[in-house]
Design a protein that fits this description.
The complex is a heterodimer of chains A (499) and B (494). By secondary structure, chain A is mostly helical. Chain A has a domain of 222 residues. Chain A is built from 22 helices and two strands. Chain A has a two-stranded antiparallel sheet with strand order 1-2. The longest helix of chain A has 32 residues. Chain A is globular, with a radius of gyration of 22 Å. Chain B has a domain of 208 residues. Chain B contains 19 helices and no strands. The chains are: A mainly alpha (499), B mainly alpha (494). Chains A and B meet through β1, β2, α5, α6 and α7 of A and α15, α16 and α17 of B.
């Protein structure tokens, strides 16, 4: 079944290329993958032996003296949650995409690129073979390049397309080297993640601590570029603000989580000593994300760039959970990946709608929208509260878990990570400041003089947004919905972290 | 069927094509090319029906490898390349005719075209023979068969200054490199007393080998072969010759000539690499050449504005990755658990064949209907001809090494070799090269998809025949399949 989930969007993209009706096919494929991934979640059993469930395995490169490459998929609690995130956001992204007649240029290219970006992310989350985990992620590279370059907004879109492509291309090359070094260091006999982790847990065959630091550094830079870890963040905000709305949703909401997923799935279990020795470096960098980029976010003058920076900023919390490297912290990080993915996709969708209908999203040119368009105002308010981490939304539950996890390892006095947590807590204030400021500027106060007033959100527009909001609220009130999957998944990885 | 029949059939086919051109009155001489393509398709099928000889006592087998799936694989590469070159040549026919046909009134309107289709057949026979050559003599003769055919083909457009200039440059430098090769062979024979590669290996691995003389022979041979494959600093001919030569011939040069060059390099260098006394110094020299080639090829490709020139530097860059694999040969005394460079190089060349020929096929179609080969001429092509743009996008993505394409698997294997052998300098420059590749290959994609066409540009879709489109689809599918399931190619020779 996992194979169907991975290849359905990709095959649908191919079908669109061959002449199938673009929007209909894309929507159908996205909805079916969402349903299938819900089915996978129902069939998923906690407390089962072995790391991955529902596995499938097809050897594709067998040769002497070279580890077998195989197209193998499997799911554990962590990848299941990310699968749900990907399919949910993919459906929403296709739904908010413009009708075929409204696309300037080739609608085939538009929809098949969307499906390829989504399908690549799903493939990466479900692959249990390191080679294909890496390869599927890169499937999004060229579609993103074309989508931003052709359908993006603003004059600089071609330049932005180049920036993101070269940046992410270089990042993934560094990542590639790090991954190969890890595989070679572990004997170079397999690419299966579960086997690699088993080899690494054995103290005799694991990588020496000194080498681990170097490899972890490469992985941190490689994954860090993909996640926009400070100081590798400069590609993110311009790209998200200029990308077409669905691409921004998929990229910020889903694809960026790949880097974090990679760190949790690969770097933590295989290189525990490396993670430990570089922990303090990561702590400083993540403060750069939370505090420095948080302040940068406050200073933004338009909604799209503010959202771009806020999505970069929130990555800091996920890193905090990863550095904590204990059950609560990492579980919180995974939950936050889900929560942030859904909430930022929702915000980008609203921002895209506003840009299409008001013609601008600059704070100074808009105001008082809530009095004219109450539905939009209400939805945006919920989304902004969720992103700021208000209780009742998934983001809150996740952030609390991250902070608890990060604080929990305290000895008799505050260590680096506890101090970092104390400083990072101020990030919550910062995000409340910019989110509420944005809400006040856009929706409260007098109606801006030159503003055109469109009609309020229609049902068809509200449907995908309500879907995302419902997911946030449901998980916010009952975090156990996802935690039941995440906790065993993290605990399956954690013995390696502790050892 | 004995394996050497394959070459005989191809040569005979070439001769028949020449005879038809001379004695049969044809309306359209492109039928000669169709004949050649059908013949090559048959020969390709015969590759799978080869019977190896039971006894190899005869003197013939001292010149010809007897039982090596590697050589069959390279014969396959030569045949596929020639087939596609003939296809391109038929598309390119109007340009050849315009720049070669005789002005006399009673001459055939396509006079001088027949040889353009027959010459690749002889080059192909040479390439196939080279794949099986196991003796210095047969290596030399087959190499020259190929090279001399190429001298003519490069300069074929005799009313085109660029083509003639390319021909002269190629001839002079090619002759010089041949001289180096023969001199190197002479030294090698002097040291080892044999022309057989097996015997040479035995002599070089023995303990009493004369190291200085062997290294001298190695240096001479390496100079010559680095010239053939386009290794820096012997790559200077490549951009000019690639740009000037007729486009199908450029494609042939960049694929056929490079594959053959690397096969000979593998065959000739492996005795040196097997010798413990020599391997250290040999890999250092190979590493230095790979380092320079990667750096020059990739960085010089960045500012190129002419598409053929860009592909020329890209061909140098890929030679760099291949040389990098060769430089990462593990020492024979180590029990190497890793991948063997020969397999990596063979795979890389197969992938390189698919993507480069796809790129050239698209360019030939474009060139036959538009005058320019500049990158700027591709502006807005995606709106004009979506299919051709998509095909070129696939080729560029694979050349750049985007995962899930054949090109990525090639680079992946090379990087893995370098990490296993801890060749950090090569790794770093390889990474810089791959990153530069993202830029200069995607520049083509950006030009096709993102740029707006010039105001006076035509918006008529470019024409391509059904056959051409089918072959493009086959190549695109092959690129993806080999990228997802590399066994498809690997299984052919291991």
């Amino acid at each position: 079944m996992l194979e169907i989930i991975v290849f359905l969007p990709i095959l649908a993209a191919l079908a669109i290329g061959l002449g199938a009706p673009a929007r209909f096919t894309a929507l159908g494929a996205a909805v079916i993958t969402l349903i299938l991934s819900l089915v996978a979640a129902i069939q998923f059993e906690s407390n089962v032996e072995g790391m991955f469930q529902m596995g499938s395995d097809r050897p594709l490169l067998v040769m002497d003296g070279f580890p077998t490459l195989s197209l193998s998929f499997g799911v554990d609690g962590i990848s299941l949650v990310l699968l749900l995130l990907s399919t949910l956001v993919l459906v929403a992204a296709v739904l908010v995409s413009p009708q075929e007649s409204e696309i300037k240029g080739s609608s085939k290219l538009y929809y098949s690129s969307l499906l390829l970006i989504g399908g690549g992310a799903i493939g990466a989350f479900l692959s249990t073979d390191l080679f294909f985990l890496y390869a599927f992620h890169e499937l999004a590279l060229i579609p993103t390049f074309l989508m931003i370059g052709i359908f993006g907004k603003g004059e600089d879109r071609v330049k932005t397309a180049w920036t993101i492509t070269i940046y992410l291309g270089v990042g993934s090359l560094i990542l590639l080297v790090g991954l190969i070094m890890a595989v070679v260091g572990l004997g170079g006999t397999t690419f299966q993640i579960a086997e690699l982790i088993a080899i690494a847990e054995d103290p005799e065959s694991g990588i020496a601590a000194g080498d681990q630091t170097w490899i972890y550094l490469l992985l941190l830079i490689g994954f860090g570029i993909l996640v926009s870890l400070f100081p590798f963040h400069s590609w993110a905000a311009p790209a998200y603000s200029q990308a077409p709305t669905p691409v921004a949703m998929l990229h910020a909401g889903v694809l960026k989580k790949f880097g974090l997923y990679g760190l949790i799935r690969i770097a933590l279990p295989i290189l525990p000593a490396g993670a430990e020795s570089l922990a303090n470096v990561v702590l400083i960098l993540l403060l750069g994300n939370i505090i420095y980029l948080g302040l940068v976010t406050i200073a933004q003058k338009s909604l799209d760039r503010m959202l771009g920076y806020s999505s970069v900023m929130h990555m800091g919390y996920v890193f905090l959970g990863i550095v904590a490297a204990n059950s609560i912290g990492v579980s919180g990080a995974v939950l936050l990946m889900f929560a942030h993915g859904v909430s930022i996709a929702l915000l980008f969708a609203l921002c895209g709608w506003m840009r299409d209908h008001f013609g601008t999203v600059k704070f100074e040119e808009l105001g008082g929208i809530a009095s004219k368009l109450p539905k939009l105002g209400l939805l945006f308010g919920f989304a902004a509260f969720a992103a700021a981490g208000l209780p009742g939304f998934a983001n809150f539950a996740a952030e609390v878990a991250v902070f608890f996890g990060a604080f929990s390892g305290m000895g008799d006095q505050l260590g680096w990570i506890q101090w970092t947590t104390i400083i990072a807590l101020w990030g919550v204030v910062i995000s409340a400041v910019y989110m509420l400021r944005a809400y006040r500027n856009l929706f409260m106060g007098p109606v801006a003089p030159k503003m055109e007033i469109p009609t309020d959100l229609s049902w068809s527009t509200r449907l995908p947004l309500l879907l995302l909001l419902a997911a946030l609220v449901a998980v916010g009130f009952v975090p156990e919905l996802l935690n039941q999957f995440i906790r065993p998944g993290v605990d399956g990885l954690l013995p390696a972290v502790a050892g | 069927m004995p394996v050497y029949f394959l070459e005989i059939i191809v040569v005979a086919l070439g001769l028949v094509m020449l005879m038809i051109d001379a004695f049969v009155k044809l309306e359209d001489k492109r039928s000669i090319a169709w004949l050649g393509m059908i013949g090559l398709a048959v020969v390709f099928g015969l590759l799978f029906a080869v019977k190896w000889p039971e006894s190899t006592d005869g003197v013939f087998w001292q010149f010809y490898e007897s039982g090596d799936s590697f050589s069959l694989y390279f014969k396959g590469i030569a045949i596929v390349a020639t087939f596609l070159v003939l296809l391109m040549a038929t598309i390119y026919t109007p340009i050849v005719v315009a720049q070669t046909a005789r002005p006399e009134k009673d001459a055939h309107p396509q006079s001088g075209l027949g040889e353009f289709f027959a010459l690749p057949m002889f080059a192909c026979a040479g390439l196939m023979w080279m794949a099986s050559a196991n003796n210095l003599v047969s290596i030399f003769v087959s190499l020259e068969t190929v090279t001399i055919s190429f001298y003519i083909m490069v300069a074929y457009l005799r009313r085109n200054v660029g083509s003639l200039e390319a021909g002269v440059k190629y001839l002079i430098l090619g002759a010089l490199s041949t001289a180096f090769l023969v001199y190197g062979f002479a030294w090698l024979f002097g040291i080892t007393g044999t022309m057989q590669l097996d015997g040479i290996k035995e002599a070089l691995t023995s303990s009493d080998v004369n190291v200085t003389a062997a290294l001298f022979a190695f240096a001479l041979i390496l100079v010559s072969l680095a010239f053939k494959v386009g290794g820096a600093p012997f790559h200077f001919w490549i951009p000019d010759v690639y740009q000037g030569a007729p486009t199908p011939i450029t494609a042939f040069l960049s694929v056929g000539s490079k594959a053959a060059g690397f096969l000979v390099l593998l065959r000739l260098i492996s005795p040196f690499l097997a010798s413990d006394a020599l391997v250290g110094k040999v890999t250092v020299v190979l590493g230095a050449i790979a380092f320079l080639t990667l750096l020059i090829g990739n960085l010089a490709a960045l500012p190129q504005k002419n598409f053929k020139r860009l592909l020329a530097y890209s061909s140098v860059a890929h030679a760099g990755f291949l040389l990098m694999a060769l430089a990462c040969t593990p020492r024979a005394s180590e029990t190497a658990a890793g991948t063997s460079p020969a397999q990596v190089i063979a795979f890389y060349l197969g992938a390189y064949l698919l993507m480069t020929l796809l790129a050239f096929l698209v360019v030939t179609v474009i060139r036959s209907q538009m005058v320019s080969e500049e990158v700027d001429a591709f502006r807005g092509l995606a709106k004009r001809s979506p299919f051709l743009s998509l095909a070129l996008l696939f080729a560029m993505a694979s050349l750049a090494g985007i995962p899930l394409t054949a090109g990525f698997v090639g680079k992946f294997l090379v990087f893995k070799l370098a990490i296993e052998q801890e060749q950090w300098f090569l790794l770093v420059v390889g990474l810089i090269g791959a990153a530069a590749g993202f830029y200069y290959y995607l520049k083509i994609a950006a030009s096709m998809y993102l740029a707006t066409p010039a105001k006076d540009a035509s918006t008529e879709p470019l024409q391509a025949t059904m056959l051409t489109k089918t072959i493009m689809v086959i190549l695109m599918v092959a690129i993806i399949v080999a990228g997802i399931a590399p066994n498809v190619i690997m299984g052919l020779f291991s």
